[in-house]
């Protein structure tokens, strides 16, 4: 069998297997990436900015050894730099987006967004992929997400966010996972569990961690940062989960036969 054909068959099968595995991947229309908390995208990507879209245009082939034809170039004017080279703060940045993962249909010129991007080909050559990087209208961010960009998301080397694959009660999964001594700044302390399954499967559940919290160091462990909105969201989720369990229990319980009416002293009426 031709090696190239075999590779394509293998990758296609792998994509189907991973894409259907507990909805682990974002549904991004042909661009499947592991769904991540915004903080994890902030930590993993090399550039995070607040910027206004100046123009969106087509791009020529990148050339080189990649052989990748880039579809779109997004020119943005940087208003704030949260992560990346400080020289980028005073100049326009060009973000490349390609294939089924492009952002051209989702962005509006003149609008302000938060962008995270990765320079995967060479330093300073930034790529954004729909579903893989964090791209969101600035005015749609929650106060807690903005606080994350200004500081709460910065515990990257000490705390990581781990996805749980279960569909169990998320409230049982937000405990500290592992602990290690703090020997240095780069020594990881632990993880915060992030269960997105309920939010994805049941639209009544909000993703409380994504919207209202960050994984931060508290003492010698990593915990979800609690605030008013986070506690309010978790309380609502717990209530909905409890209600859902009751409804499920009713559906699974055997149906009872209707009781026969009790026969008392019956009177016969003659006409």
Automatic annotation (TrEMBL):
Disulfide bond residue pairs: 31-101, 33-132
Residue ranges of every copy of the NTR domain listed in the record: 31-159
GO-annotated cellular components: extracellular matrix; extracellular space
Biased composition (Basic residues): 239-249, 256-265
Region (Disordered) location: 239-271
Keyword field contains Zinc-finger: no
Signal peptide: 1-19
GO MF terms, alphabetically ordered: metal ion binding; metalloendopeptidase inhibitor activity; protease binding
Pfam families attached to this UniProt entry: TIMP (PF00965)
Lineage: superkingdom: Eukaryota
Keyword terms, alphabetized: Disulfide bond, Metal-binding, Metalloenzyme inhibitor, Metalloprotease inhibitor, Protease inhibitor, Secreted, Signal, Zinc
Cellular compartment(s): Secreted
Gene Ontology annotations of biological process type: negative regulation of membrane protein ectodomain proteolysis
Binding site for Zn(2+): 31
Xref: PROSITE patterns: NTR
Keyword presence, Metal-binding: yes
Family membership: Belongs to the protease inhibitor I35 (TIMP) family.
Stated name of the protein: NTR domain-containing protein
